[in-house]
Specification:
alpha/beta; 34% helix; Rossmann fold; 704 residues; 10-stranded mixed sheet; disordered N terminus
């Protein structure tokens, strides 16, 4: 299988590289891992992603063996997409949208009409309609914007050119830009939709399809042969998705938006956007190549910029060759064309001219129709005011996510066994968690405990550095399993919280063994930085969140399984009283601790501090401060953190809970816990106080 380091060898000098150890005289040193810990998580995601893409490639190759297999392939791709985009507020099954005219500006060969209508309730589409001069009716083009407002030249000049060429063209702002800014940051607000089991790209898709609904109300629009759709970057992705979802889209023209997923998203570790990483899309074998090939025999003009610094031209050329071969295998080779424009990441007027030529043939049915004469300078940009709709949406990505989460909560089955079963399902736990492979170092006495370096290996290619502090002097002592998103040793250093909690020096009836583990991507295995993470929309946490979601296996779910493996190892120890194991967690580790305890169902108690109070509050916090990988896919379809804590068949003590912005949780959040009979709350979380909570919980299990 292709290795990320083989494909990305020029990154070898970036980030962390394990130094070769030559000394064996230090008994308490950490155990040498078999993998590069700083590359471990990326390599794991890359290997799994490439395996899925290889399966997708085999499926495409099989689909070229005949019409019946090809039809089944197209149906499978479309069915997968429809699962993501169920219940869109657009389509011919819905009544036409009420339209509010705003303004009209004459431009000589065409005019611009600004109108407003809705897709989602309270969600405004600020459409600018470029109408050719004359009586019509005119064939229609929908031009969804990419990552920028419709006032940008790359978004407004192509529709103007299409109007000059005799096409009525509609463009509109995409979420986050122009008049659709507040609550629609498609990075920070888009990732929220993982929590409710949705893809944020549904907003982009719904707007584009609703524009077709709108065009159907216009007498000067000729939709008898369907509608064309074309766009750049995110607008190109929207074009591909709409083309696969709606038969009314008869011709597509994606620009500067696709390369094989195996290249940009997987091997090159480009975080991109959450809306292009639908949950499970890799596992379902949905490559960008599939979006093109499954469009056959629909006419498609794929465009790219040779100077594009994001979607590298050599990668797009490779994709175009695959798509062209697939179209040819279906005897539709003339319906696919690739245009490489000497341009950066943009939709140039050269592309608009090439698209108009393509439309003349495949949408209008007039391949010899003349294109507009004159130089590109004759298509001049309009003033912002001439495209302004003065629209204000009452709804946005954030508010709609909250609304759906509240509906889900109102219908939730809160029986403890149902919640615990759902937690296992959300985190991918099926049956008993296997005992991990382990490697343990020699004992080093530290007062009343023996310090052991430990390495747990729960699955191939994953290593969890751990520290095992075994209480001396007997057998069947209680034990603590601790997880911390900031590293396993942070609260051991200089007699910090964990040293006091386990009875270091002071001993007593609450003294215990301690296992503290760096779950994957935390502590010693925090991934090193990669080049695309220099971009403002990048980041290691975003890469982990998006890429693991696309695998259908969120990074937090992986960490919860790591904790369960650690718990299995701890329970296997002969010196541990399996009935007196306490699970503790702080920060994001508190989410892991609650899940591990709920799924395991046999721990004696849970103590968390500085943990998130609820995922629901995370949805509503405009300026959350947590890592993007805390947005666990699908969780709010089944339960929230208070439900999870209340489902545990053991006492739970939560200290100093925080909201989405990292501030102390408010009374509204605390009330959700106060009604739970097994949960005790402290609003403060000082180190002495938390340590005392853990000791008291351990002591309470004596004789149990």
């Amino acid at each position: 299988m292709m290795n990320v380091n083989e494909r990305f060898v020029h990154l070898n000098n970036l980030g962390y590289r394990m130094a070769k150890r030559t000394s064996s005289s230090v008994s308490q040193r950490s155990i040498l891992p078999r993998v590069d810990l700083r590359e471990m998580m990326r390599q794991h995601i890359v290997d799994r992603g490439l395996a899925y893409m290889e399966q997708a490639q085999e499926r495409r190759q099989l689909a070229q063996r005949g019409p019946a297999v090809a039809a089944a392939y197209r149906q499978q791709v479309a069915a997968t997409l429809r699962e993501y985009y169920a219940d869109l507020p657009a389509g011919p099954h819905l009544p036409p949208p009420p339209v509010s005219p705003v303004s009209t500006f004459e431009q000589g060969e065409y005019r611009v009409e600004n109108v407003v209508f809705e897709s989602w309730p309270g969600w405004k589409i600020n459409a600018s309609v470029f109408v050719p001069s004359g009586t019509g009716p005119f064939p229609a083009v929908v031009f969804p914007c990419g990552h920028g407002p419709k006032t940008q030249e790359t978004h407004q000049l192509p529709p103007a050119y299409f109007a000059k060429a005799g096409y009525i063209a509609v463009t509109f702002d995409s979420p986050m830009f122009g008049e659709k800014g507040e609550g629609n940051d498609h990075f920070r607000d888009g990732v929220r939709h993982y929590l409710i089991g949705r893809t944020s790209s549904r907003f982009f898709v719904a707007d584009a399809l609703r524009c077709i609904d709108y065009l159907e109300t216009r007498t000067d629009a000729d939709l008898s042969r369907g509608v064309a759709m074309t766009g750049v970057s995110g607008g190109g992705t929207t074009t591909l998705l709409c083309g696969a979802l709606d038969d009314r889209v008869a011709v597509i023209g994606p620009s500067c938006c696709v390369t094989p997923a195996a290249d940009l998203d997987i091997v090159q570790c480009y975080a991109g956007c959450p809306e292009t990483h639908q949950f499970g899309r890799y596992a379902m074998g949905l490559d960008e190549t599939d979006l093109l090939c499954a469009s056959s025999p629909k006419p498609c003009l794929l465009m790219a910029g040779t100077l594009d610094t994001v979607f590298h031209i050599e990668d797009t050329r490779k994709l175009a060759e695959v798509a062209a071969a697939y179209y040819a295998s279906e005897e539709a080779g003339d319906r696919f064309s690739f245009f490489a424009d000497e341009a950066p990441h943009s939709y140039s007027l050269r592309q608009a001219r090439e698209m108009a030529r393509f439309l003349n043939r495949w949408l209008r049915g007039e391949p010899d129709r003349a294109l507009p004469r004159g130089a590109d300078k004759d298509v001049a940009p309009l003033a912002d005011k001439e495209l302004c709709c003065h629209s204000h949406s009452e709804s946005h990505m954030r508010s709609l996510a909250i609304s759906e989460a509240d509906t889900l909560a109102g219908n939730r089955d809160r029986r403890p066994d149902i919640i615990r079963q759902a937690a296992a399902k959300v985190t991918g736990v099926t049956g008993e968690v296997a005992l991990p492979e382990s490697e343990i170092g020699p004992a080093f006495q530290v007062i009343a405990h023996d310090w052991h370096a430990l390495m747990l290996r729960p699955e191939e290619g994953i290593e969890l550095p751990a520290t095992w502090l075994r209480l001396r002097g007997g057998t069947l002592f209680p034990a603590i399993l601790h997880v911390d998103d900031r590293g396993r040793h942070r609260l051991l250093y200089k007699q910090e919280l964990l040293t006091s909690a386990m009875g270091f020096i002071i001993g007593g009836e609450s003294a215990a063994h301690l296992l503290t583990v760096d779950l994957r991507g935390w502590g010693d295995s925090v991934p090193g930085m990669y080049p695309y993470e220099m971009a403002s929309w990048g980041g290691v946490d975003r890469y982990l969140a998006y890429a693991s979601a696309a695998l259908g296996d969120g990074i937090m779910a992986m960490r919860i399984r790591d904790a369960l493996s650690s718990l299995a190892w701890l329970r296997s120890r002969p010196e541990v009283d399996g009935k007196r194991i306490i699970v503790t967690g702080c920060g994001a580790g508190s989410v892991v601790a609650l899940h591990a305890a709920a799924i395991d169902g046999r721990v004696a108690g849970v103590v968390t501090w500085h943990g998130l109070s609820s995922f629901r509050h995370l949805l509503g916090e405009a300026n959350y401060t947590c890592s993007a990988d805390l947005f666990m896919p699908n969780v709010l379809r089944h339960y929230d953190l208070p439900d999870l804590a209340g489902s545990l068949p053991c006492p739970v003590h939560v200290c100093g809970m925080v909201d989405g912005s990292g501030q102390p949780a408010g009374d509204g959040e605390l009330k959700l816990y106060r009604v739970l009979p097994n949960v005790q709350i402290d609003t403060e979380a000082s180190s002495p106080q938390v340590a005392e909570c853990i000791r008291e919980m351990i002591a309470s299990t004596a004789g149990g």
